[in-house]
Specification:
The protein is 38% helix and 13% strand. By secondary structure, it is α/β, with parallel strands linked by helices. Helix 1 (21-31) runs antiparallel to helix 9 (272-282), helix 3 packs parallel to helix 4 and helix 3 crosses helix 7 (220-229). 50% of the residues are buried. This is UDP-4-amino-4, 6-dideoxy-N-acetyl-beta-L-altrosamine transaminase.
Length: 411
């Protein structure tokens, strides 16, 4: 797309997929083939994704929420256990722990980045232990594509005997900086400091599968649990069969129809249709990441004169695959509340969104845990606004958004 040509549609949502003819051809090929689900395209997608992030295993599933739930199940979380979750995240990060009966120990975040740090996690652990919960895991969120400090959180987890489930649903293609004296960067999903990492392929994410998710891990036992629970809890491995008389025939071979269910799982399978789109999009990941970085740089340059009234949220380092472009706005100084700003932007063809209402404010969690004082999360929420960012945008579109903000600021 030419840099000076507006994108289509003229209204800019905060995010949307970028689909090319080769993506459509990949999906069409599956539709014309023999396998619409439980076929070879899912396996190819898993293998390609594992290679892309440097993990031993990648298990595809229906969506990012399913990925998080499967990860919690793989840790065998139970009632009385607790998971530390940053308050600034989507509902699914917390809900996945509750699906297993575990409690959620909400952690505060840096009001400049929206990320949970080690001190935030330690404070949440202390509150959880005071409540009598067994803290089992940390669930850092790599918010907007920016990585949480995995070395600091990894050191904490090791010292406390905790597992880490990375919520990397915003961060397909992101690389984190090493902060413990190491050199270079590490791909999120490599699980070098975590048990598992969870990803989403929703249309607004870095790559799209329509819906879809993935869990990566380097632990063989966790991988077996993930694969079992993604498909009803079924086991087809003869070595794992418990009812030997029913499982094996007179020849000693396993009966070809036989399967067992040691414990219930879910139908969280990804279809080959979705996998075909995800696999095609994965081949464009580097291009998508570069384009998002280019637009972030253009936003930063154009909006710099509006600071501190309107400014890009803080940075955590590393090489983020930017999922969101979040600005922090001093609405009081601007003389408009956020609803008015969003309405004025929409009138100029610019969509926006809020990421997120801190989860501890949701009625369910407020009723369960009472009111929590998390000033970083509340400070983030009071100021944040996500602006349009997706690969199909042209440079012209970044200028449109910036011009709309300039008019609002009287610049």
């Amino acid at each position: 797309m030419a840099a000076d040509t507006p994108s289509v549609p003229s209204y800019l949502p905060y995010g949307r997929q970028a689909i090319d003819e080769d993506d459509i051809a990949a999906v069409t090929a599956v539709l014309r083939g023999d396998w619409l689900t439980q076929g070879p395209t899912v396996t190819r997608f898993e293998q390609a994704f594992a290679q892309a992030v440097g993990a031993r295993h990648a298990i595809a599933c229906a969506n990012g929420t399913a990925a998080l739930h499967l990860a919690c199940m793989a840790l065998d979380l139970q009632p009385g256990d607790a998971v530390v979750v940053p308050a600034v995240t989507f509902l699914a990060t917390a809900n996945a722990a509750r699906y297993c009966g575990a409690e959620v120990a909400f952690a505060d975040v840096d009001p400049e980045t929206g990320l949970m740090g080690r001190a935030d996690a330690e404070a949440a652990i202390a509150r959880a232990e005071a409540a009598g919960w067994r803290v089992r895991a940390l669930a850092p969120v790599h918010f907007a594509g920016q990585a949480a400090d995995m070395d600091a959180l990894g050191d904490l987890a090791e010292a406390r005997g905790l597992a880490i489930i990375e919520d990397a649903c915003h961060a397909v293609g992101s690389r984190r900086a090493r902060t413990n004296g190491g050199v270079g960067t590490v791909a999120l999903g490599a699980c070098d400091r975590s048990a598992m990492a969870c990803f989403s392929f929703h249309p607004v994410k870095t790559i799209a599968a329509g819906e879809g998710g993935m869990v990566t891990t380097n632990d063989d036992a966790l991988a077996r649990s993930l694969r079992r629970n993604v498909s009803h809890g079924m086991v087809r491995d003869p070595a794992a069969f418990q009812d030997r008389a029913a499982a094996f025939g007179a020849t000693g071979a396993a009966n070809p129809w036989y399967y067992e269910m040691p414990a219930p799982g879910y139908n969280y399978r990804l279809t080959d249709i979705h996998a075909a789109l995800g696999l095609s999009q994965l081949g464009k990941l580097d291009r998508f990441v570069r384009r998002r970085a280019e637009m972030v740089a253009r936003y930063d340059e154009r909006l710099a004169p509006l600071a501190p009234l309107i400014r890009h949220a803080g940075r955590s380092g590393g090489e983020p695959a930017w999922h969101l472009y979040v600005v922090l706005i001093d609405f009081a100084a601007l003389g408009r509340d956020r609803a008015a700003v969003m309405a004025e932007l929409r009138a100029q063809g610019v969509g926006s969104q809020v990421h997120y209402i801190p989860v501890h404010h949701q009625p369910y969690y407020r009723e369960r845990y009472g009111s929590l004082n998390l000033p970083g999360a509340d400070g983030w929420y009071q100021a944040c606004l996500s602006l349009p960012l997706f690969p199909a945008m042209a440079d012209y579109d970044v200028g449109r958004v910036a011009a709309a903000l300039e008019r609002l600021a009287g610049a």
